[in-house]
Amino acid sequence: MNGRGTRCVTRQSWAQLRALTPARIALGRAGAGLPTSAYLEFQAAHARARDAVHAKLDLNGMLENIAARGWPALNVHSAAQTREDFLRRPDLGRALSAESKARLSEPMVAPDVVIVIGDGLSSIAVERNAIHVLERLWPAIAATELQLAPIIVAEQARVALADEIGEILQARLSVMMIGERPGLSAADSLGIYLTYAPRLGRVDSERNCISNIREGGMSAAEAAAQTANLIRSMLTHGASGILLASRMGRLAQQTVNPGS
Fold first, then answer.
1. Under CATH, what is the fold of the domain 58-249?
2. CA dist 219 to 10, 54, 131, 226, Å?
3. Which residues of the chain have pLDDT under 70?
4. Is there a contact between 126 and 118 (Cβ–Cβ < 8 Å)?
5. Which of 79, 116, 206, 259 could form a disulfide with 162 if both were Cys (CB 3.0 to 4.6 A apart)?
């Protein structure tokens, strides 16, 4: 207790909070700095995040994993030719290369849903989690009457690349599975972005996002279930993002007050 009779927070009470979160709290101190163990762990987490950002997607391995499950697939590349271009020019990661545009422009039945796997800012997240989600999501969609496009594997991809892909294929809806920006708690988190009527110029408020898909975060099974539910809702209401929320909210209100 201090001179005013107020009880000080003890290390034990902070330690109990640490068990509830991966956030860096209650690390203690050594003089005016961090303990050596906490400092080294911070440096290691920072190194993992940097490695994830710069790591190259194992494209052949991803395509082989998809083919081994009997799913059709195509690979494309953004307008960012190198990783350095991708990191310095986000706009290039949102646009297809000329060769990829030509490949996707070949005659194809317009699909209801196109699934895009993009490396994003963490190819590690894609390699560790994307197939596990697809193993649950692809059969769930295939069991319906919806037309699926071949899975598109995109290198040097940003989220909005799925807009151009969806527009070229004339898809009703796009599902972008992409590596999220690494943090100091996790460098392998996968995100899923869904957009109704994808086309160039879509903004983030027109999308729905499911994030933190990884071991220690949201499971692949839960992510696939949420994605399948969102696909059904988007196709039913003809919208995504805040417009979908608005339309679903009005429907819920009408259900509660049918006479209004």
1. Rossmann fold (3.40.50)
2. 35, 25, 12, 11
3. 1-15, 251-260
4. yes
5. 116
Alpha-carbon gap, residue 254 to 116, rounded angstroms:
35
**Nearest one of 108, 120, 118 to 150, comparing CA atoms:** 108
With 0-12 CB in 10 A as exposed, 13-18 as middle and 19+ as buried, what is 181?
middle
List the domain boundaries for the chain: 58-249
- Look at residue 29 in the predicted model and tell me its pLDDT: 75
Q: Are 194 and 173 in contact (CB under 8 A)?
A: yes
Is the sign of the CA dihedral 233, 237, 242, 248 positive or negative?
A: negative
Amino acid occupying residue 49: A
* The 3-state secondary structure of the chain, one letter per residue: CCCCCCCCCCHHHHHHHHCCCCCCCCCCCECCECCHHHHHHHHHHHHHHHHHHHCCCCHHHHHHHHHHCCCCEEEEEECCCCHHHHHHCHHHHCCECHHHHHHHCCCCCCCCEEEEEECCCCHHHHHHHHHHHHHHHHHHHHCCCCCECCEEEEECCCCCHHHHHHHHHCCCEEEEEEECCCCCCCCCCEEEEEEECCCCCCCHHHEEEEEEECCCCECHHHHHHHHHHHHHHHHHHCCCHHHHHHHHHHHHHHHHCCCC
- Per residue in 15-47, pLDDT tens? 677 777 777 777 777 777 878 888 888 889 889
What distance in Å separates the CA atoms of residue 128 and residue 138, rounded to the nearest whole number?
Answer: 17
